[in-house]
Design brief:
The chain has 290 residues and is mainly α. It contains 13 helices and two strands, in the order H-E-E-H-H-H-H-H-H-H-H-H-H-H-H. The protein has a domain at 62-254: MetI-like fold.
Length: 290
């Protein structure tokens, strides 16, 4: 028998497709257009081919920013993932305190990025900030606007404070989904706390952790507002990450061609690494299914 296929469902996703076209595809095509052309103003463009891409590949400025970006993302992941797991393991499982901890952990995630930057900018000031004033009173030379290490520590601690909650909440949800039968079997076998974590909890939350790593990588690799508000990319270029360098090139110097080529390479790097994470997550799901 020939079954009639109902295609009316496409009308339900049509608004989404239109929205994506206006919010993502069309701006992307505009960037691609600028990346292969040059202009001298008056809306007159000249074909440049891949010249801007070659220029960016030969620019030490871009590679320096990429190195800082990779270092920042690696440090963030190395701190937030273990810390988030530790917090999730020590959160109450049920009752009033469990709800209280969940609400408390969600609060940093509700604060807008520019407000987070403003909070830490004031918090770290030596004259009026609690952190800066306290460290200065203790004789510690702390000035995130002039000292390289102070700037990096401030940006890293700020990001850890803002986003560790996301990892903790995802890990907590994964832990809550583990059946009690696993813990009862481990108790009968007199397994240690480390053994329970190593052979029961960690394998069961691996998929959730991969999602957390993917989200945190993408956020940290595209970070802009918080370090820009706090340090402005300084001192010097010490906290000028890829996003900040790109905005300076596009808006500060108005080099639209190089900035467009830069942004496309930036996009491709994020897309490639995200694809790697997606492939790993898919393979883990297939392995768990078998």
């Amino acid at each position: 028998m020939n079954k009639t296929v109902n295609q009316k469902a496409w009308f339900l996703i049509l608004p989404v497709l239109v929205l994506v076209a206006f919010s993502a595809v069309i701006p992307l095509m505009t960037v691609v257009n600028y990346s292969v052309q040059d202009t001298f103003g008056n809306n007159q463009f000249f074909w440049a081919g891949i010249d801007w891409f070659r220029e960016m590949m030969d620019t030490e400025r871009m590679w320096d920013a990429l190195g800082r970006q990779i270092a920042f993302s690696a440090i963030i992941l190395a701190i937030e993932i273990p810390l988030g797991i530790f917090v999730a393991l020590n959160m109450p499982k049920r009752g009033f305190w469990a709800s209280f901890c969940l609400v408390l952990m969600s609060l940093p995630l509700l604060i807008p990025w520019n407000v987070v930057g403003t909070i830490w900018q004031i918090f770290g000031r030596v004259d009026i900030g609690l952190l800066g004033y306290t460290l200065d009173a203790m004789g510690i030379d702390y000035n995130y606007t002039q000292n390289f290490y102070a700037a990096w520590i401030t940006v890293i601690v700020m990001d850890v404070w803002h986003w560790t909650s996301l990892v903790a909440l995802l890990a907590y949800a994964g832990l809550q989904s583990i059946p009690d039968a696993y813990y009862q079997a481990a108790k009968i076998d007199q397994a240690s706390r480390w053994a329970v974590f190593r052979f029961i909890e960690l394998p069961k939350i691996t998929g959730v952790l991969m999602i957390a790593i993917l989200l945190r990588f993408m956020d940290s690799f595209m970070i802009y507002t918080e370090p820009f508000v706090v340090t402005g990319g300084g001192p010097g270029n010490s906290t000028t990450f890829l996003s900040i360098d790109l905005v300076k090139m596009a808006l500060g110097q108005f080099d639209l061609g190089p900035a467009a080529a830069f942004s496309i390479m930036y996009y491709l790097v994020i897309l490639l690494i995200s694809y790697v994470f997606y492939t790993v997550m898919t393979n883990l799901d297939k392995r768990d299914g078998h």
